[in-house]
Design a protein that fits this description.
mainly alpha, Growth Hormone, Chain: A, 15 helices, globular
């Protein structure tokens, strides 16, 4: 698809600087989904069903908070940029509160669980005020359709590195320190270690975007309800959001199941790290290839292809039930190829939708769009571990405290493999029904120009509240 640039190209330094924020978003999206559920069930002794709710509730709060955070950032008038100050303030709070999640008491179970819920709630709130402004920035940094894809390519490469670093090393820290001291100490050290990574990502994005242009338009007036109503009236946004939430739900379930697959099916603690390397490693290689697909065939086509590969990889994880580690790693690599595209394309498409809306209405609701978007993503990733925990509970999974040796029934082992493969594959397949109804790419191609590149100061074509 041809593009008609209407803004000065972003420098490579700005693109890389913006991408550093994915160190924080990738790490926070990965580590709680990977380790928080097993920390609750296998270290603190919380029942699987209750643990699933404990992981879900703080993130479900973000579903309410994220649109509010977006609206607040829309109205920001800081001299350092509309969104940038949020990256610094919320990023620091995110790092501190994450470390504190695992720094609480280990017993009694009710007190330990309460500590986790309260601190995870605070951490999720800080993340909302970091993530929403961060995701909103590309729609205002550039008006060019294809440049947004290039910007997201940088971001997804860094995202893959962040997931690889945090997802592979966080369990390793728990295991190494736990073997030398105690499992509880291992989790505490891991929390501090991940907190440092989150802080570096937030500070890097704040500094790296200091020279980024701001093509934002006037902030829309009206109440929050008015803004949400107008955002909900965008069919392209609804279909894209539905697709992404369903996929986030499936991916969240897969992430939650990795540690259980490693411990109970592959019988190796190191398998958690190896599965993550297999999952994320291919993304570093194929992400630039997905950018080429977008340039030649369009973003929706690429997103559809990536989703199909993601389904095949998820179904391939059924092989984990045989205990064949190499085959499980190969299936995880296929998941990683699809996952890379399933991140590049929607991340590049949501700024298109938000900027297209701003160009047509002449009013800035980009923060509200991204607030609702990240709320949906957060809900999906939060429901994923809850869904996996529900499958475990139905399979009769036996929770335990540190040092206890329990034998899982065969039904629990079956639940692990179904929860990490079949359930995610079905959710991701269903998401294709919504993706088929996304039409913005077709309109842009048919018109021979990118509506999202239109002059954002154009006369509104629809009333704004």
């Amino acid at each position: 698809m041809d593009s008609a640039p209407s803004s000065t190209p972003l420098s490579s330094a700005t693109g890389r600087g913006y991408a550093l924020g994915s160190v924080a978003t990738g790490t926070f999206a990965t580590v709680p989904g990977l380790l928080l559920l097993p920390y609750l069930t296998d270290t603190l002794g919380v029942a699987a069903g209750i643990a699933g709710l404990m992981v879900l509730l703080p993130k479900a709060w973000d579903v309410v908070l994220n649109p509010i955070a977006g609206r607040i950032s829309d109205r920001s008038t800081s001299s350092r940029g509309r969104r940038r100050p949020f990256l610094l303030r919320a990023g620091v709070l995110l790092a501190v509160t994450f470390a504190l999640i695992f720094a609480g008491p280990a017993e009694p179970t009710w007190l330990a669980g309460t500590w986790v819920v309260v601190l995870f709630l605070a951490c999720a709130s800080a993340y909302a005020f970091f993530q929403v402004p961060y995701v909103a920035m590309p729609a205002e940094m550039t008006l060019d359709y294809d440049e947004r894809t290039r910007l997201m390519t940088w971001r997804v490469v860094v995202l893959a590195l962040a997931i690889l670093l945090s997802g592979a090393t966080a369990p390793l820290v728990v295991d190494v320190v736990g073997d030398a001291s105690s499992e509880t100490t291992g989790y505490r050290v891991m929390g501090a270690y991940i907190g440092v990574i989150l802080l570096l990502g937030a500070l890097g994005a704040y500094r790296g975007t200091r020279d980024a242009p701001d093509h934002g338009v006037a902030t829309a007036g009206g109440s929050m309800r008015d803004q949400l109503r107008l955002v909900a009236q965008s069919p392209d946004f609804r279909h894209l959001l539905t697709t992404f939430v369903l996929q986030a739900l499936g991916i969240g379930a897969m992430l939650a199941g990795v540690a259980y697959v490693a411990d109970h099916l592959l019988d190796s603690g190191s398998a958690t790290t190896l599965l993550f390397v297999a999952f994320v490693g291919p993304a570093l290689l194929v992400t630039p290839l997905w950018e080429r697909v977008a340039a030649r065939r369009g973003k929706r086509y690429g997103y559809t292809a990536a989703t199909g590969i993601l389904v095949l990889g998820a179904l391939g994880l059924l092989v984990a039930s045989t205990g064949q580690a190499l085959a499980a790693y190969a299936a995880a690599a296929v998941v990683g190829i699809g996952y890379a595209g399933a991140q590049v394309f929607p991340m590049a498409m949501i700024p298109d939708v938000a900027a297209d809306h701003a160009a047509r209405t002449g009013a800035n609701r980009i923060g509200v769009f991204t607030g609702v978007w990240t709320a949906g993503e957060t809900l999906g990733l939060a429901l994923g571990p809850g869904l996996f925990a529900a499958v475990l509970s139905l399979g009769g999974y036996v929770s335990s405290r540190e040092g206890e040796d329990v034998t899982q029934p065969d039904s629990a082992l079956d639940a692990i493999v179904v929860g990490v493969s079949v359930v995610p594959a079905l959710l991701i397949m269903v998401s294709l029904l919504s993706l088929r109804r996304y039409r913005l790419d077709e309109r842009l191609h048919r018109n021979g120009a990118h509506d999202a590149d239109a002059d954002p100061t154009a006369t509104p074509q629809e009333p704004t509240p």
